[in-house]
Amino acid sequence: xxxxxxxxxxxxxxxxxxxxxxxxxxxxxxxxxxxxxxxxxxxxxxxxxxxxxxxxxxxxxxxxxxxxxxxxxxxxxxxxxxxxxxxxxxxxxxxxxxxxxxxxxxxxxxxxxxxxxxxxxxxxxxxxxxxxxxxxxxxxxxxxxxxxxxxxxxxxxxxxxxxxxxxxxxxxxxxxxxxxxxxxxxxxxxxxxxxxxxxxxxxxxxxxxxxxxxxxxxxxxxxxxxxxxxxxxxxxxxxxxxxxxxxxxxxxxxxxxxxxxxxxxxxxxxxxxxxxxxxxxxxxxxxxxxxxxxxxxxxxxxxxxxxxxxxxxxxxxxxxxxxxxxxxxxxxxxxxxxxxxxxxxxxxxxxxxxxxxxxxxxxxxxxxxxxxxxxxxxxxxxxxxxxxxxxxxxxxxxxxxxxxxxxxxxxxxxxxxxxxxxxxxxxxxxxxxxxxxxxxxxxxxxxxxxxxxxxxxxxxxxxxxxxxxxxxxxxxxxxxxxxxxxxxxxxxxxxxxxxxxxxxxxxxxxxxxxxxxxxxxxxxxxxxxxxxxxxxxxxxxxxxxxxxxxxxxxxxxxxxxxxxxxxxxxxxxxxxxxxxxxxxxxxxxxxxxxxxxxxxxxxxxxxxxx
Length: 610
What we know:
Strand order of the largest sheet: 14-13-12-15-16-17-18
Structural class: alpha+beta
Oligomer: single chain
Mean pLDDT: 83
Radius of gyration: 30 Å
């Protein structure tokens, strides 16, 4: 039996990380401390000084554990890693963790390439980003390809040199044809250096070098070559003009400017990226359920989570308010890039103006992204009679056709409908058409993933923590089935059913006691529930349709001798549908990967029997 009072007495006076758990062993909160015994004891003393959110968290604490570190910096790094892994319910979490596009320059190759990627690998390539607008990234790369004759192929050089004729890009002067030995590696890498300089905001230097090349070519009477340089200069100037000049006074220092805007329940952080005196990009990040969280806590949590995964760390970070942990975060970031990083709060001048601009943009993004949902979630919390704010909602639906190919779907609303977190379920224990039984199985399987979640490698990512609300498609029968699954697993999660009218439009919520709440009087809640219900239903139908198509392919093509799983996959990939496969000629079938004339004829004959 864990005795909190006795365990508090055992806390060491050393730096470290502490982990708060509830009675089901779920992680509620992860924090760091310079002196563990002082910090952890604060949660259990003078509760009136704690915010409502932390008081709610403390009321749920059943046990805690701690990890002693050698320094506060080491505790900070460990805290960042554990929060990223476990995403505790009461930590301020950066929700916008989608995969952002980067520009990758493959400097690990002898003749580097440039392209868009969403994966940052531990290789020797250079990555620029992250960027929010993938179209802007595409435009940047298109401009760079106009300015610099880069190779676009994926050939392995110099291994593949001379094996094929040069491509069209070479003949229209948009590639130097390194695949034919048309340029040596040293000259090509000089061009790549200019590409990297351009991406790092040194457009003036690049344009100056191009100007010198143009003048030198003109002096040598190489007017066609000079014209090429002239066109590249125009393209470079056009791209540079798209970037707002930020006269920060530190044109050689990379700066991130962080603005914060607050709503009733949500917050938005806007980051401006200034590189070599130019504003080269911006990002915005949403935080949900921030009703009683201090601005400094939001900014501190953002700094830890954002700079734990971003590739580029600037020399200066500008904030609108000072934070308690600024020195240890500076030390952490300086150690990461082996160069001094400063966190500042500008009071006047150009940097202050830029900070205010970032804050104004954060306010605009907050209004654009979340105010409608924010009000709806607050009203929904009141309808359900809940104390804690709603952040994460998981919705379930069942789909079948006369009891065949029965599937379940899970859609997740986490500040927005987040498709990356959706899940599909094949029904394993229920035979025939029994939506209530299927709902019990699916909800139970989802909640079972949370049972063993913990610090020792058992956590299963986003599903290692409980949702704030479960919605099931259906009436009281489905709600009861979900409640039974939660009860068996010892899980305490609010559950409600989403009910439609005769025209298949969302009309009401069914509560755990069977009460039906009409949503006409709550239009914002009605809109939110309708979106969630339609999305989880669409996802279930899509999965059901794919399974039926696979069953159809399996039942027909399995009868043809020589057609195995690989050839079935290639046939469907090539033709797209069973109908197209049936109508294909032997010649068309032979064009499919893994097909030969004998097998193609067998397929054709099977569908064209007299």
